[in-house]
Specification:
A four-stranded mixed β-sheet has the order 22-23-1-24, covered by helices on one side. Strands 2-15-17-16 form a four-stranded mixed β-sheet. It is α/β, with parallel strands linked by helices and 425 residues long. A hairpin with a 2-residue loop joins strand 8 and strand 9. Helix 4 runs parallel beside helix 6, helix 8 packs parallel to helix 12 and helix 10 packs parallel to helix 12. 50% of the residues are buried. The structure holds uridine-diphosphate-N-acetylglucosamine. The site of uridine-diphosphate-N-acetylglucosamine (UD1) has 20 residues, from helix 1, helix 5 and helix 6.
């Protein structure tokens, strides 16, 4: 297994390009299942998760080819509709094939994802919605079995929680249903809009784009897509926070600043100087004489502050001038990074879903362990800002969601490399 070694304390500076969004690429790859033929997906990030999703597609009988960041997916032949445990356990988003397979094949069998490092993460909203669309769903031997005797039927569905992947699954199921589906309290993350736009390009009839009520008029068939993945707002935010934490000055390029408003507002509140271009954002340290200020955040569904940038913001706040209060409202157990940040000298107290972060004069490098994807990136940020050497083990978590991380950070002047982890008996 590899570990990441960082010699911290260097101010990051320069430009870093942002890749396509992992959380958009995954549902868009799944959506190709809806129409037989050759689909073209552009700006696809080369990540462990996108590779896992394509492996799952291959398992279903789909053929695909990478050509740089363009992935061509041929969904003409589908052998069967089963997503096995071995794939689902490594990536919960495998559940995204449920909706499209139910719609196209009338049958799908997907392993239940189970818990994960950040909480229980149930999928009952996906299942309830599919039932409302007329599918039969059974839970058996750790699998959810979805069958339909006829075409799915449009329905009115209310999501008690605006779940991102449930919204995506149900939209994908409803586009081929008979009649109209009204999906209320839908999630409206930009990745969902990316999916909706792709589906419209394939011939789907969807109203309410970017809103929390999606009206889907089912059509009998769709055509293959040619579609680009939006820039990754979480990767973008991670680099802005990394640059800010080191006191550096840098620009993220190839991004959509409009998707980053909640973060940019918090960065400005902390005293950082932010300049937005059309596809760029520049971050500079607070003006002379000012220190990095403490800012509170509460994670919320989009357009609120994203839970996927909570850990990284906390890393920045360990360096601020006062106490910052960070409240996590989306996932029940998303403070796994706290104990690791404490190893670097952070002063953090947790009370339920709230973390109280006291700014310190600085962090010091240490050996830490990556626990989940975003927690890991907060450790990278802290390690870059800390004095001395930080070693992060279990970096396969980072490889799930950050394309060319070492290369991109090196381009900003970070001293960072991968090393083989020595086995301890
Ligand atoms: C997606 C993102 C993930 C992000 C999360 C929240 C992908 C591939 N992953 O995950 O990076 O952290 O959104 O922005 O896009 N819930 C239920 N019942 C369900 C489904 C969800 O109660 O059936 C709850 C969850 O426990 C959680 C909340 O809804 O409290 C939001 O989760 P959800 O939006 O479903 O997250 P994911 O779609 O899994």
């Amino acid at each position: 297994m590899d570990k990441l070694v960082i010699e911290g304390g260097k101010k990051l500076q320069g430009e870093v390009p942002i890749s396509g969004a992992k959380n958009a690429a995954l549902p868009l790859i799944a959506a190709t299942l809806l129409a037989p033929g050759v689909h073209v997906l552009r700006n696809v990030p080369d990540l462990r998760d996108t590779r896992t999703m394509l492996k799952l597609m291959g398992h279903l009988g789909v053929e695909y080819r990478w050509d740089g960041d363009v992935v061509t997916v041929d969904t003409t032949k589908l052998h069967h509709g089963e997503a096995p445990y071995e794939l689902v356990k490594t990536m919960r988003a495998s559940v995204l094939v449920l909706g499209p397979l139910a719609a196209r094949l009338g049958a799908a069998r997907v392993s239940l994802p189970g818990g994960c490092a950040i909480g229980a993460r149930p999928i009952e909203l996906h299942i309830k919605g599919l039932k409302q669309l007329g599918a039969r769903c059974r839970l058996e031997n750790g699998y959810v079995d979805v069958t339909t005797t006829k075409r799915l039927q449009g329905a009115e569905i209310y999501l008690t929680v605006p779940s991102v992947t449930a919204t995506e699954n149900l939209v994908m199921a409803a586009v081929l249903a008979e009649g109209t589906t009204v999906l209320k309290n839908a999630a409206k993350e930009p990745e969902i809009t990316n999916l909706v736009d792709m589906l419209i390009g394939m011939g789907a009839q969807i109203e309410g784009r970017e809103s929390d009520v999606l009206i889907i008029h089912g059509v009998s068939q769709l055509r293959p897509a040619d579609c680009a993945i939006i820039p990754d707002r979480i990767e973008a935010g991670t680099y802005l926070l990394a640059i800010a934490a080191t006191g550096g000055e840098g620009t993220i390029t190839h991004c959509n600043p409009g998707h980053l408003l909640a973060l940019l507002e918090k960065l400005r509140a902390a005293g950082l100087v932010i300049e937005e271009g059309k596809t760029t954002v520049t971050v500079r340290p607070p003006v002379l004489g000012k220190k990095l200020g403490s800012v509170d955040i509460i994670t919320r569904p989009y357009p609120g502050y994203p839970t996927d940038l909570q850990a990284q913001f906390m890393a920045l706040m360990t360096l601020a001038d006062n106490e910052s209060i960070i409240k996590e409202t989306i996932f029940e157990n998303r403070f796994m990074h706290v104990a690791e940040l404490q190893r670097l000298g952070a002063v953090i107290r947790i009370d339920g879903n709230t973390a109280f972060v006291t700014g310190t004069m600085g962090l010091a490098g240490a050996k830490v362990m990556a626990t989940d994807l975003r927690a890991s990136s907060s450790l990278v940020i802290a390690g870059l800002a800390a004095s001395g050497r930080t070693e992060i083990s279990r970096i396969y978590h980072l490889e799930r969601g950050y394309e060319r991380l070492v290369e991109k950070l090196s381009g900003l002047g970070a001293v960072i490399w991968k090393e083989k982890e020595e086995e301890v008996m």
